[in-house]
Structure formats: structure tokens, C-alpha cells
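User: Before I run my own analysis I want an independent prediction to cross-check against. Here's the chain; please return only the C-alpha cells and, at the end, one sentence I can use as a sanity check.
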Amino acid sequence: MFRYLALVWDIRSQAQVGIARTLAGRMTTAPKSWRQIHQSDGVSVFCADTSHGSLDAHSLGRESGVVLGALFKRCIDSGEDGAATHASFDEVESRCIVKTQGRRLIEAYWGNYVAFLIDEARGRIWILKDPTGSLPCMRVVHHGVHVIFSCIEDCLAFNLVRFTVNWPYVADYVLGGWTNGESRSLNELDQVTRGECIEIDTTSNRLTRRQFYWKPSTFALGPHLLEDTRVAATLLRRTVRHCVRTWAGCYESLLVRLSGGLDSSIVLGCLGGQGSVASGRVTCLAYYGSNVGADPRRWARLAAHHVRTELIEVPVDARHVGLEPLLNAAPTPVPAPLVSYYLANRIEREVVRDRAVTAILTGEGGDPGFGSLSIGRAIDEMIRNHGFIFRTIQLAAQIAAIRDTTTLRVLADALRRRAFGTRLRDNARLFDKLGQMASYDTRRTALAYDHYPHPWFREEAGVPWGLVYRLGMLLTAPEFYDPFPASGGHQANLVHPLYSQPVVELCLRIPLYVHFLNGRDRGLARNAFTAEVPKEILQRQWKDRGANVNEELVAKNLVFLRSVLLDGVLVREGILDRIAIERALSNTPTKAAAELPVILHDLAIELWVRKWSNCAASAAA
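Assistant: C-alpha cells:
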């Protein structure tokens, strides 16, 4: 898969020049096909596995930098819903990008990229991570040389740094899976956050400044909110179709993960009529388990038939799936959902190989983006924007109906939040649920934050839960590389079109109470995509209970889970409670459904910690 590694050094330092030369030499002779795509005084950028038309290197004029990944021009005509034009830079545009220190890229382009911008006259280098993409941007310092890269395995291959685990980060991650964006997962690893630009002074080779060019609050709390439901629905349809079709045009063969739910059906529906479905470039895949009540095939068939494309239905029987292969997962910069990756890899590997699939499209991002996770906070935005009017009472009644509570309770909770603000501990029940096996100290420490620990919210007085719930995976470190790479090297890129920058920005500009149109979950999206999604799916107001995969996995792997967790590193460090693990992994025939994902979540963290402990031991040896 596409990857990059860049070196930044002080050309006046003989020691750094020697180290950079040595590293560059090792890369050119490495087994992986590294290609140098930029070289200037003190900067060298290498790429591997580039693909023209999707993830590639885009050079700026006059050797002033390079943009790595996928980059598209913003569509000026708001009525356009076809694929965007790929970016290319002449000298004038290149000068503009460097002069604005990369802000021009945020404003005039979108995609999945990392940019290296060089101004030799001012002695500055800027490294910019795009606002919503999944391509990682990480940095370590090796004897004064900055090494910026996308895949941490490359950093390990060159033995640049001995990484050590940051235990407070791990404790935060255990308590529910939200990551502390203001803390490093590995003490020596610096993540460049989405929408962030770091500046390196080439006269000293020191990182002198980091700033955000993009923050979600700019759109959600800005002056240009979209409250006209007709205009909002029209723009939502055009923007989503535009982004889905742009990504689809980057790849030869597509696989759409089709759950039969609204979001994945919207993504598939936006491909209809484009020519890609009719030409056989798109195949759909639906999983189903042994739980008859959670069988998605009826809905998936409706969505596939609607655009006349092939649907492959694959059973998921986890009763015979051992979790021992998780021990062989590749190292990742942050804990990854190993079980999800492993199961998807097992299920999709054959289809990806046989159909020569180059990209897998998902409906991820729909639930947070279309407001499904934030219905309860719609009342907060209504009060903030309009105060107490009749529509406020009406909205409170609609929320009460869908949340199974009273109108008075909805209003009272909203007024309390407005008067006293919100903190992490206000969601203590959520953390108690997700941190069932966490120790007392772990829970107490994590709940002590007065704000949500992500740099986007550093200036917030409290926790803007309504905004947090709308961002989904954007709050976490990018996940780009599969920890279970397929043998033979062929991998498909995982693409989430609903996390595209134009879609995210538009969804944030639309208030939650507009997304909650007519008191329906994702009501605006249902209204916007009537042509793309079958009527039966649009009218469906419930989510099926998940398949029995978690129950089957835990039952099958009890011995393995006990051996890994009971005397594991997390227990030894006091992050997990051994008694709670014993109770969760007892031999009782039934377990609370809420415990099962927590068990697998904590397993992934335990294996992640062990992986890095082993890597540190190997590096030391």
C-alpha cells in the first residue's frame, strides 16, 4: 500500500548530513521499492507503492514542495455532483500555496493527503495533515534529524527509535476507546493531527510552531448555518454524490460493504447511474450471522437491486474462529480494533483477490455526520440559536418520544447544561459501561478532565458533547494500514466517502435539529436521498440487534482470553482489575451483552502493549 517517509535535517550540521545520507542510502537499497520524489537542501521525501489517479505524489513548482496522497479541486459550482478534478499545480498556484503556508490547500482542495511545503528564502518547512483523511502523519527525531512517515513499520525497519508505551494514554484508551488526543500513545512518537500544520525552522532544524488551520467548531458554531431544510437537503445530496463519485473514479474495481442500513445504502445509491455499476466495477458484500433477528440480507438485497449490481452474501460463523492469530498483528501506532480487522480480512480476502478489488467503500461516518448519535443534543443547539420558542417545545417532545423520556426532562437537562456547562464526568455512566474491567484508579483519573482531551477543544470551557458526537472517527488517530496484510502484497484501500472534507463541513453547518427533520433519526438524509435509496430502507426507523459474533468469539476463545488478560500487562500496571476480568470471563453460560465488546476491546489493548514491549526489547538487544 501507499506509504511515504521524509527526512528533514540541518545542512550546516555535518552530523545530521551524515545521518540523512546514511538513511537515504538505506532506503534506496531496501527491499521495498522506495522512490525519491523530492530532494532539496535539507529535505528528502520518498514514496512507495504510488498509484496514478488515487494515492500519488503531486509536486509543486520550483521545487517548493510536494503533496502526498489523493488531492482534488474544490467544486466551485454548488450544483455539480459529478467527480472532482484531480489537482495539479503550476508555478503561480505553487507560490500561493507556499505563501499561505498551506492554508490554500485547506480552502481550495480536499482529499486524503499530507503536504510538505518549503520556503528556502524564509528558512521554513511546513508539514500539513489534511482535515479528515485517513493517511497518517507521524514524526520522530533521530539524532536531530526529523523523520516524518505514514507507516510505523518503516520506522521500525530502519531501527530509528526505541519506542516506549505512554501508560496514561493507555489508561484513557481502556476507558471506552476514546483517545486522549493531547497525549502520545508512544512517548517518542508525535502524531500530526488532522487539520494541523507544524513548522520547522531550517536554520536550527527545530519544530518552532504548530497550529490548526481547520477546526470543526468553525463550521458547527460559525455564522453560516444552514437552517432551510430544502436548501440543506439539496446541498447534502449534491455534496455526498460528488464525493462518493470522486473516490469511485480513483479505483478500477470497487467493493461496497453493504449492511442494508441507511448510510451504506446512500453510498451505494450515489454510484448508481454513473456507469461504474453498469460496467461491473462495483460489487456489494453483506455479512450475516447465526442470529436470525439480525439478518441484514433483506435490506442489502433491496439496496443492491435498486442500483442493479451484484450482491455477495457471506455467512459469519465465529464459533470456529480462534483469536490466536491476533498475536501476529503488525504493530500499529495506537491500539486498533484487531478483532474487526481480522474478521473483515478473513471474509473479504477471497473476494478482493478474485475481483482484483482496489478499494473498499463503506458507510462509516453517516451516523455521526447525519446526526444519529447526537439527537439528544439537538435541543441545546435550538436553545442556543433561537431561545425558547414554540418550535423548541415541539423539538423537545420529538426527542422525548425517540429517547423514551418526557418533554420536561429533555428541557430540564438542556437548561442545566446551558447553565452549568458539561464535563467528562457528566457521562460517567457511559464510561462505567465501557470501562467495566478498568480499575478504580483508571476510572477516577480519566474522569478528572474538565474538557475533552483533544487539541480541537483546547480552548473550550467544557465538553461540547453535541459536537464531539458528530465527529466520529475524526477524533481518533488515522487508521490506514491493515494490521493483517494479505499475503502476496495485494491490498485494497479502505475508503470512507462520508468522512470527506466537503461532506463533514456541510454536515457540521447543518444544525442538529435540521438533521432531525420531522422528529426522525437522520431525517434530513432520508429526505435528501429518496432517489438513491429504496423506500423500505428510508422508512426503516430501527437498527437490528447485532449478529452473535461477539458471543461466539468469547465462548470459543475463553481459555485464550483468560491466559492473555488475567495475568497480562494491563493488570500488572493496575489499569485493569483482575477480579472484574475473572467475573467477565467466568464459565457461566451467558454473559451480559455489554461485557462482550469490552472484553475484545481490552484484548486488543493488551496485545498492543505487548507488541510494543517486545519491540522495545528487540531494539534494546
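Sanity check: The longest strand covers residues 109-119.
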